UniProtKB/TrEMBL annotation:
The lineage of its organism: Bacteria, Bacillati, Actinomycetota, Actinomycetes, Micrococcales. This is AMP-binding protein. InterPro entries: AMP-bd_C (IPR025110), AMP-bd_C_sf (IPR045851), AMP-dep_synth/lig_dom (IPR000873), ANL_N_sf (IPR042099), Mitochondrial_ACSM (IPR051087). GO terms for molecular function: ATP binding; CoA-ligase activity; fatty acid ligase activity; fatty-acyl-CoA synthase activity. Belongs to the ATP-dependent AMP-binding enzyme family. Residues 59-438 form the AMP-dependent synthetase/ligase domain. The keyword Ligase applies. Pfam families: AMP-binding, AMP-binding_C. PANTHER family: ACYL-COA SYNTHETASE MEDIUM CHAIN FAMILY MEMBER 3 (PTHR43605:SF10), ACYL-COENZYME A SYNTHETASE (PTHR43605). It comes from Herbiconiux oxytropis. Coiled coil: none annotated. Residues 489-566 form the AMP-binding enzyme C-terminal domain. Keywords: ATP-binding, Ligase, Nucleotide-binding.
């Protein structure tokens, strides 16, 4: 294919670039003054034409030799790209993608792991105005068929090892295959692709061809701030995944709030543990670091090794580290002293699910650094967080971030309250960092925005200082003996027991109380799933919780999770219903035995 550069030079509208830079620099300057930062905050004023890849990334990247991306493999090999290299290579790829047929507004499925081609493709697709559908490499044929259809995908970019998964797909699309060029010569990669035809007779274009010739900067595609840019499927913890649409500004510019929460600034080296294909990857591994002009550091592994990660934090100059609660729980099971001496490590954050206070306390005692929790959804950027200069209240996820009109609303009355559903006010100006809506789902859009607010479906409480504490999903909170039970609150206590790595609380049907709290437990190494361990956990919970919160049953069980790592409590609730109906058995331990023993 013949690649040609656009004849018109990149106009790079200075007002948009400088507007973003001005807001960013103010947030960095006030990184330890959250009240002042929020009080005077206004989202950047973006003109009628805007493209984040050209108007922001290229503006900070041209001639910038600082590392934009560092990827370290399990064998120690690494790939490093400067900001300038990323700008140039994404131009080359963008020109070639246009020649392949990708046009502004076309939906492109991007199914790559943590490899340099993922970041090149994201930038190139942004620059040409395509709509990107990031997809995890863990999916197979049925899931891919569904997503291709719902996302109206016309093009697919996938790694060579994953292209056979598309043989089952019956929908038409143009495929672009990324060969593992780190292990093959350029010629071998091209020949391998050209000779490969799928069982469906589909040929895959050769990604590596994009870099055969030099090109000039891409011309501005004429994208507007409200043009669609990203389609993300939600993780589906309680229902069928929803398809979320973000624009050229809602994620790319909206992640100024995420940058503020992460505490990033120019020159930082940010390591985030996140899987491509999910919104969190765009949060911490793309937009927020590059808004800050920080280096994205990726540590690839087949199986997570806590000791190796601690060594990486100590030796690679990492200044900020973001990991999900599952990783933090694994780290505290290892020797945290191996992470001491990380002289430049400044920021620790957790996201994905609420982090239990016990984990925060253990890391604080060993490293002297607070893990700062934050909250957001696929539908938006970070909206609540413990920002860098804010005193930490264990168990709280912090206060609303600048530009985020967060309110708590009583689900029954719709009135403002100190304990209710987390919502964003839509009256006046719509928050810039909120999605456009759910694609082709007007019913869900209407439900989500009823009453002039965006409803997250999450419950929280607010204290006198404005700190929010997560309670749970509206679907997860339940009543036992007419008392409201927050699964997260009980789980936070259980995880303090040395035998418990993870816990999930769900209601178990009960003739007397209607429902009682039951704990599904993932055990720490060295602890047996037996009656003695169960009794120890039940006694621990009895002493730490109020009588109405008491955990009445325990079962040792592999917790079901979404492919992005979130616990699917809905599956556990359904299992409890089957157990109650007698269609399924379980091996659980009950506190009745403890009461009977106490009476004796």
């Amino acid at each position: 294919m013949t690649g040609t550069a656009a004849t018109a030079p990149n106009p790079a509208p200075a007002p948009a670039t400088e507007a973003i830079r001005s807001v960013r620099d103010r947030l960095i300057r006030l990184r330890e003054h959250p009240v002042e930062a929020a009080a005077g905050f206004a989202w950047p004023a973006i003109g009628p034409a805007f493209n984040w890849g050209i108007d922001w990334f290229d503006a900070i990247a041209r001639g910038n030799d600082a590392p934009a991306l560092v990827i370290v493999e399990e064998d120690g090999s690494r790939t490093t790209r400067s900001f300038d290299e990323m700008a140039t290579r994404s131009d080359q790829l963008g020109v070639w993608l246009r020649d392949v047929g990708v046009s502004k507004g076309d939906a492109v499925m991007l199914m790559l792991g943590n490899q340099v081609e993922l970041w090149e493709s994201m930038l190139a697709l942004i620059k040409i105005g395509a709509v990107i559908l990031p997809t995890t490499v863990a999916f197979g044929g049925d899931e891919l068929q569904n997503r291709l259809e719902r996302g109206r995908v016309r093009f697919v970019i996938a790694a060579a090892d994953d292209t056979p998964k598309f043989d089952q797909v019956t929908l038409p699309f143009t495929g672009i295959r990324v060969q593992p060029s780190r292990h093959l010569s350029h010629e071998d990669a091209r020949d391998g692709v050209r000779s490969d035809v799928s069982r469906e007779g589909r040929e895959w274009a050769v990604y590596e061809e994009a870099f055969e010739k030099e090109v000039g900067p891409l011309g501005h595609p004429g994208t507007a701030p409200g043009d669609p840019l990203l389609h993300y499927f939600t993780s589906g913890t309680t229902s069928k995944p929803k398809l979320v649409e973000h624009t050229q500004v809602s994620y790319p510019v909206g992640h100024l709030s995420t940058m503020y929460w992460l505490g990033l600034r120019p020159g930082d080296v940010h390591l985030a543990i996140s899987s491509p294909g999910w919104a969190k990857h765009a949060w911490s591994c793309f937009f927020a670091p590059w808004i800050a002009e920080a280096t994205i550091f990726v540590s690839n592994y087949t199986r997570f090794d806590p000791e190796r990660m601690l060594t990486t934090l100590r030796t690679e100059g990492i200044t900020s580290f973001c990991a999900p609660p599952t990783v933090w729980r694994m780290l505290i099971q290892s020797d945290l002293t191996a992470g001491e001496g990380c002289g430049v490590l400044r920021e620790l954050v957790s996201a994905g699910e609420p982090l239990n206070p016990e984990v925060i306390g253990q890391v604080r005692r060993q490293w002297g650094i607070d893990i700062r929790d934050g909250y957001g959804q696929t539908e938006m950027t970070a909206i609540v967080a413990n920002s860098p200069g804010q005193p930490i209240k264990d168990g709280s996820m912090g206060r609303p971030l600048p530009g985020c009109p967060v309110v708590l609303v009583d689900p029954l009355t719709g009135e403002h309250t100190d304990e209710g559903e987390i919502c964003l006010e839509l009256s006046g100006s719509r928050p810039l960092n909120l999605m456009t809506g759910y694609v082709a789902d007007e019913e869900r859009n209407a439900e989500a925005t009823v009453g002039g607010r965006f409803h997250t479906g999450d419950l929280a409480s607010r204290d006198a200082d404005g700190y929010l504490t997560y309670i749970g999903r509206t679907d997860d909170v339940f009543k036992a003996s007419d008392y409201k039970i927050s699964p997260f609150e009980l789980e936070s206590v259980l995880i303090e027991h040395p035998a418990v790595v993870e816990a999930a609380i769900v209601p178990a049907p009960d003739d007397l109380r209607l429902a009682v709290p039951k704990a599904y437990i993932a055990l720490a190494a060295g602890h047996a799933p037996d009656a003695a361990t169960a009794e120890s956990i039940l006694l621990f919970a009895r002493e730490a919780l109020a009588p109405f919160q008491r955990v009445r049953r325990v079962e040792f069980f592999e917790l079901p999770k979404t492919i992005s790592g979130k616990i699917r409590r809905v599956e556990l609730r359904q299992r409890e219903e089957r157990i109650a109906a007698g269609t399924e058995t379980c091996d659980e331990y009950r506190d009745d035995r403890l009461r009977d023993r106490d009476r004796a």
